[in-house]
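Hi R.,

As promised, here are both runs. First protein below:
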Amino acid sequence: MRSKPEEFVLPEWVFQLVRTPLNFLWRGLFKIRYKGTENIPERGGLIVAANHQTYIDPFWLSIPIKRPLRFLAWDAAFDWPLVGKLIELFGAWPLQIEGSDPAAIRRTLQWLRAGEAVVIFPEGGRGRPDGSMLRFKGGAVRLALEADVPILPVTIRGAHRVWPAGQPIPSLGTVVVTYHPLFRVNQKPGEETRACARRESDRLAAVIQSAL
């Protein structure tokens, strides 16, 4: 397991500086369109949960979210040449996809309880080649319950055609990113956390699926 006390992350002013040029780049290359940006809260603890189609997804979805972000990413990706260091600089934290990772969970809860936002891809990896989603894991809902924060569901559509699995570099295309109304986890009285996480994760997936 990869573990470090605190990695260096680029300061927020760097993101503000590159936000506009990146937005122009995405619009020029991928004709990217953003919908529902009025649903993005400016403050308060928040989990951003999105479907996952390409490795560029975090950079696409973060453009309209004008606040500090951290990303939970597959721990193995941090060992990839160049990519590992890049995602670390942009605020990604390593997470073991299979099994328990208490250190990553504690770190994420501290960030959320401090009123900050974290991005999670509940599929645990990229979805299917045709753009359809894998079944969501329960981690995003569990974190929302424990930190008592809402979830911002995000749908990324068309990215699987821009950069399909097996293709070495992205191609030109059209990508639409939709930000849905805030999702509040609803735990029924007496309901076990595991059962709630499973049911609410399916409900969250249905919201994101609705804009594919």
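And here is the second one, sequence first, then its structure tokens:
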Amino acid sequence: MTLRVTTRFAAVFTAMAAASIAVVGCSTSDSAETPAAESSTGSFPLTVPHMYGETTLDAVPERVATWGFGTTDAVLALGVVPVAMPSAEYGGGDDLTYPWISDAIDASGEPAPILLDNVTDALTVEKVLAADPDVLLAPHSGLTQAEYDAVTAAGVPVIAPPEELWSTPWRDVITTTGDVLGVQDRARDLVADLDRQVQDAGAAHPEFEGRTIAYVSEAADVYYLLLPSDPRVELLENLGFVSPASVTDLATDDATYSTTVSAENISKIDADVVFTQVDTDDALQQFLDSSVSRQIPAVAAGAVAGFVGQEAGAAVGPTALSIPYFLPTLVEGLAAAVSNAG
């Protein structure tokens, strides 16, 4: 099954892996059990520990700038329009803004935020300061020590990633944002609601339960296999799918969220369904017709959930806004692929 998303689905796989490892790394943690900040609900001063030390906020910030992936979505989902946010060159369309973010800003009636640099680029401190924010929220980002120091030296508090760059679970991005905005309970309710949406979608398709799935992508004749620790694979597992041993067995010793697979090993990917995302219809057809790809049994059987368009590629990374935006499309494609698998 190939599914073309025709809204504004507008880098390559490796850049998306960075921004989804970048997108949500380690998203198996339970935010409800591990609060993101040392604070009771809505209490200030609020102290947030992170990889560069800790940041204390005396009051709820009114002007919020966001950086990295997923934080803009969390801020908007919790009812705040940021004064500045990263642009999205991959999947953001002509206005460099993801459609689910544009929809939320339009619905708010508030002015559009200042666009900062692309989400995976270096942060231009001058652009941040021009927005005059009360805080820079960057819990899931590539924010460097030098960038952190420059923004804080200008008097703007910064919430940096808690442990590692591009490694904060998507649920923790939401709960950290809720802590900073003084709506801790609302943020945790939002996480629970998003989990419920995914669970309900899986329950509506009992044929997903226990089916094996492999997330395979190809770029420039290199095949990438996403591992269960990647948040996109986690989302598929939350719908009822499981990752077969053939996926984890192919991972190299230094693999974290993805691994490359050589042509001679590609036939070892043994799963009921293959999930893939590509930028164009031609690229998808090449993947389906390739003599290398067809060594994967599911590809040869036509059991492929293929999503076309950069917007689709970006939407697969779970965030507070992309999950409800893309979930129906995702489930439709998966259901067709499972039907083809027999």
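A quick note on the second one: Residues 184-203 form the longest helix (20 residues). Let me know what you think.

Best,
J.
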